[in-house]
Structures are given as structure tokens and as C-alpha cells.
Amino acid sequence: MRYSAWAILKQGLTGNAGWPQAWRSPDPRPEYDIVIIGGGGHGLATAFYLAREHGLTNVAVVEKGYLGGGNVGRNTTIVRANYMLEGNSQFYSHSLKLWERMEGDLNYNAMHSQRGILNLFHSDGQRDMFARRGNMMISQGDDAELLDTEGVRAKVPFLDFENTRFPVFGGLYHARGGTARHDAVAWGFARGADMRGVDIIQNCAVTGIDIENGRVRGVQTTKGAIRAKKVGIVVAGRSGQVAAMAGMRLPIESHVLQAFVTEGLKPCLDMVVTYGMGHFYISQSDKGGLVFGGDLDFYPSYAARGNLPMVEHVIEAGMTLMPMIGRARLLRSWGGIMDMSPDGSPIIDKTHIEGLYLNCGWCYGGFKAVPGSGYSFAHLIATDRPHAPASRYRLDRFETGIGLMDEEGTGAQHNLH
To answer: pLDDT tens-digit profile of 253-279?
Structure first.
């Protein structure tokens, strides 16, 4: 069934009893052409584009939990294409273009809202860096506008502009950036993949990867063995654990990143605002809650929950920038497991094992990359050739040191990215 205004009217008049299931819940078959390990946004997008762009439908997505229960449902929903380095800039520009037509492609409302993103700067050096970043964005065909203090004040007059330590010097405004409903993105890609014949198998954990003579032969799961000609690993913070089943040690660390939402408030913030010196970012959801986050918890962990000192740290940064939020009551918080790479940029590549492919290391950039990552990973799996926008995301750059993309210039420390 296609969703439409007519379908909504018809179902509303008939008690909403005729809506079909958005996707099936099949048992796994003994064999598939391709098995995708991980049913988050990236894995589901990969399956969708394998079917839509390459006609490959004998595909299974194996998810150990339920759809939307991992990082794709544990983030601050920001979508943007404001990267500076060669490789990153092209990839995120491609991903943003996919975002802009994604809801039409999926026939699903993911609540993608291009409300704009404002990155603040607080020194002359930061202004110069953001000017360079904006020029790179424009050269990719994306938008960027460098604002002075008064330009920022006209958009968000409630900031603390005269903060003694970090006064607001201006900001880089990215009008095509914005937000989307995180779990709706997963549901939309799941429905789109399922409609094209992909099997989405929930509550099915992978316990082993079968390899014979240097070639992948399938996976072992809690629902039995599944044979496959090709296997893609795309499990975010669990990448190191799953890759270890194939005898690989990845150059990533897993860290917890917390996010928060307040009670619903009247509309007061119509864009995403990021605080460069305090590492704080905030937007307002369609339900009225202020959604915000900040730094990692700064220690490796596989626990999808955070700690109270980091809660205090993030909220201190928010109050420093935006004192008006002080009376808002915090409703809930959650933690996602970030797979942090040494240079802060992702990995989309073949492994040394024939038929085994890897997609990981997204650091803070995972949600905004969902359609671009899925498109590029599907291209790699289907053709055995890297997709041009993701051609710099090679795994061997960490072995050779050639082609590293340190977007933040903070050096090869996982927890700083």
C-alpha cells in the first residue's frame, strides 16, 4: 500500500482497521545472496538501495534487537553537510541530496525538516576556520552563509552573546541542514526494503561468521546458520565485537554519547544551534521538547547509558550558551554507542576476507549519513567497487597513514572525535 492523503482519509473513516503491516517478520531462509548484519539505519538503507538500485532482493537484514532500538533511535536527529576535507565534503554533500528526496523515494514521512543549522564561533581563529569550511561547502554546491554577531543575534537573540569567556563572534549558517525523526527513518527504510522482497529478521543475534579458505560462507545466528555469498557488517558501536568473529581487530573504540530531551515547550527555537567552545548542540522537536547533547563520556564502553557527571557537564554548557533553558524540566536521556575511528572519519571498504564488507567508524556523523552510507555500501557490495563519494573511506589508511581525514584536527585519539 502506498501512503497518500486518500489512504489516510479512507482509513480514518473505517476505523483505521485496514492498514497493512509496514514490514513482514519472516523466519530466516537457509541461504541468501547477501546477509547484512545490523538492522539500524545504515543496514536498512543498504538493503533498500541493494534492491532499488541494483535489483538484488535475495537479501536478509539480521538484527539482534528490534528496529529503531540501536543508535538510529538514540541520537539528536541532526542532518547536515557542512564538512571541509576532501572525501568527507563530497560524501556528506551526496548524502544530503539523498535526504532531500528520501521521503519521496520511500513513500514515508520521516519528518525531515530543513530548518537550518547555525554553528557558532567564538574567536578570530574559529571565524577563519568556519570561513574555509563554508567555502568548501559552497564549492561542493551546498549552501553556507558566514554571519557576524548581529547576524546571529537577528536569528537567535536569546543567546548569551557577552559571555566573558566565550563571547559569540558570529556563526556559519547552513540553511539546508536540519533534523529528521530518527526512528521514522529506520521504519521508512525497513518498509521500503521489505516491499522489494528483502527479509528483515529481528531478535536474531549473529554469534559467528563462517569462513572457508579465505572466503565468507555465511553466519551463525541464534536462529540457526544462514549461508550467504556476501556478508556486510554494519553494526555501529558493536563493530569491533562482530569483526572479531572473523578474526579482525578494527582501529575503532566504542564510546557512549548521551542525548537529552526536555518537556514539551511552545515553539522557541526554529533551527539547530551548535556551541563550538562548549561542544553543545540543541534543537526543538516537533513535539516541543528541546533535544540536546554534547561530549562523549570519554571512556570506552558498550553500555547504552551514560553517567551523571557528563549530564552535568553537558547541561552546564547549555546554560552557559542559552540561559533561558534553565527552567525547562529534563524529561529523559539516553545513550548511543559510538564507533570512534582515529581520524574521526568512517570506513566503507572490503576486508581481506573475500565477500566480507565493513561499514563502521561513524563517530558523531552516523545519523546524518544514513542514506549516503546505505547507497555507497550497497554499491560496494553489489559491484565490488567503491562508490565515488565514499572512495576515501578505505580501511588501510590506518595502516599506511595515507589518506587520513582528521576533520577536527585533533590527532589520532578516538575519544576526541
So the answer is: 999 999 999 999 999 999 999 998 888
- Verdict on whether the full-model pTM lies above 0.90: yes
Write down all domains in the chain, each with its CATH number in brackets: 26-77+183-251+343-416 (3.50.50.60), 115-177+253-340 (3.30.9.10)
Helix-helix angle 182-195:370-383, to 10 degrees: 30
